[in-house]
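dumping this here before i forget
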Amino acid sequence: MHDKVILLVEDNADDELLTLRALKKNNIRNGVVVARDGSEALDYTGIHAGRDLRMMPQIVLLDLKLPKVDGFEVPNRVRSHEVTKLLPVVILTTSNEDQDRIRGYGLGANSFVRKPVEFDKFIEAVRQLGSYWLILNEAAPVPRRP
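structure:
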């Protein structure tokens, strides 16, 4: 398995499949862990569960409208913990609201990407995300748990 794991946080099964298909179509072969709500995402990053952090995701692709813990609260909590504060969080959403972008960035998201409605444009958006965040970007080393 590739060492740069993607954490996809998506509660909509159709959007999950679409994103996984777009990753595959773009030959992005990284492992993908799917969390279907914000609480599962926080558990995977080790904030709640205290899990082994050797497999920290390279990037979090985050929907906004989630059950349990919403997509705005996830980056806020990720930024508040020493081990995850530098973890790249990309909001991937259908929202085009200015207040959502402002709030997302204000709570610590690294990027805000609107999901294109057309499949070909969505494929291209995922390709660009993968190229930047998984190839070009130099991730910060994962801090050790205190």
